[in-house]
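Ticket reopened. Same input as before:
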Amino acid sequence: MTVTPPRIDNPLRVTRLPQELVDSPTFLLKRLGYAAKEQAMGAYEETGLHPYHHAILIVLGEGSPETQGSIADTLGYDRGQLVGLLDELEERGLVERRRDPHDRRRHLVRLTPDGKRTLSRMRMIARRSEEEFLDPLSEKERSTLHALLFRLAKKHEPRCANAVPRTSK
Amino acid sequence: MTVTPPRIDNPLRVTRLPQELVDSPTFLLKRLGYAAKEQAMGAYEETGLHPYHHAILIVLGEGSPETQGSIADTLGYDRGQLVGLLDELEERGLVERRRDPHDRRRHLVRLTPDGKRTLSRMRMIARRSEEEFLDPLSEKERSTLHALLFRLAKKHEPRCANAVPRTSK
DNA sequence: TCCCATCAATTGACCTCCTCAATCGTTGCT
DNA sequence: AGCAACGATTGAGGAGGTCAATTGATGGGA
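Engineering reply: fixed in the latest deploy. New output:
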């Protein structure tokens, strides 16, 4: 029996986004935000972790002991969602949950030595991924982009407001 | 019986994002993309439609008759997903599906007069919403931001590649 | 002419992500 | 001691997105 090769989609039909959408900064923002997330998830694939996990490790890596509530509030995560994420991190031995002796309702969460190693590994991965994502832009352009995004973030992501604008690298 | 007022969260605990995250353009991109989507959905609320519907109407508003496949490919939507969206638009009488007489597998989708009116109404809403989102930036800065995002989109959202860079307004 | 691979549209299963209310043990105020 | 609030956990539910299977239609090859 003969198997005919699959047809190829008509290459003449050029599917391009309407100019009206491409002209909209917020449309590009939405698409690029999604693309950035996709790329990050792909980059993290080998670790079996998500960007969420990375963000949690970063918060814990800042030193001061954190409760689950403070982690969730810092990152803007739902507390219920955080439970599952911490479960996964704890299962891999990257973080440690222990009761706060001064308030037994709380769990103090800390990085384990393995967690610290994983954090620096994820930092490298994230750095490479970001480098690739921003590849089309020069250093100066990246700085400009970041400054503009930061200005928007101060309005739309108030958690950023307290942070210091990035010092030029 | 006495009802004590609910406790207020400790206002001294300032939850700010780690500098490391705020310094990352792709992190801000992800957060702002989400915020832009949230704001747009809120702005569209009165219409009962989603940004998805708006994008579809825009494509149909360009004039040339479209099949469901071409709409999906243009916008990067899943064809199965598109079915439901078109169902909703058709239910409201904003679009019309009819079989292509030359190829009865296809549905040709067109805007109805009501659809055209709704489209221009949504354009106004989107314009106001975008205006508010970009409020912290000057006209010149918005232009710069858009140009930088467009450069990134050419790499990460190939559908943008064929479009013309925005002419300065 | 008949067969069959391909196609467009549709349907439905499934997974992820996020939000929200309910629960459990703990704490501090009165 | 009693009770309301708190931190963590659980589970339900909705929204979004991906993917495979189905249905009806087309067209090329034997």
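Helices of chain A lie at 19-22, 25-44, 51-61, 68-75, 79-91, 113-133, 139-156. The CA atoms of residues 61 and 116 of chain A lie 7 Å apart. Please confirm and we'll close it.
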